[in-house]
Task: structure prediction
Amino acid sequence: QKEVEQNSGPLSVPEGAIASLNCTYSDRGSQSFFWYRQYSGKSPELIMFIYSNGDKEDGRFTAQLNKASQYVSLLIRDSQPSDSATYLCAVWNSGGSNYKLTFGKGTLLTVNP
Amino acid sequence: KAGVTQTPRYLIKTRGQQVTLSCSPISGHRSVSWYQQTPGQGLQFLFEYFSETQRNKGNFPGRFSGRQFSNSRSEMNVSTLELGDSALYLCASSLAGAASSGANVLTFGAGSRLTVL
Result:
């Protein structure tokens, strides 16, 4: 079982729509959860992180975490063409000797003008 | 505030050679992690260092090694290069701390793109 799974996409949405990105993880001991955005040819940049169940909002972005279902999502409201990128879900584990951030393979999002 | 600096940005090597990549973390960050990114495998964890100690290592062969210095700067080395080692190598640093504080948010450098011929 893969540790962090995402739909590879591509996910295509029209400008102004809501984009919904999903991620599941296998380790119930995972402590915090991250969404990174990576433009082609660039390094990942943090969008937001969440560590407790529920929703966390930051501008047009909302992260949702459900630890019981081992599920984390990212909603992008009023999507813009500049949001077109690969979105990486990442999970932090620091139990025992596991000090690492594990990434999913990413979902490619295209926002069409 | 300076970001994470990786050198060199681009390099070309031939099979059998070895390479050393350098990473200077954000000032005050004590944890440095290394990742390999390829189109097919995504971001694969290589190792994580904190206060000069390797706390975790990914599933890579022993040809991949790293170290961290007392000033938190880190290097990784790949010996006996193979064609499959061609990738973007990313370094990231963090404060390292409680999850709720966001202290383990990784900030990435621009990467070192290695091509093995």
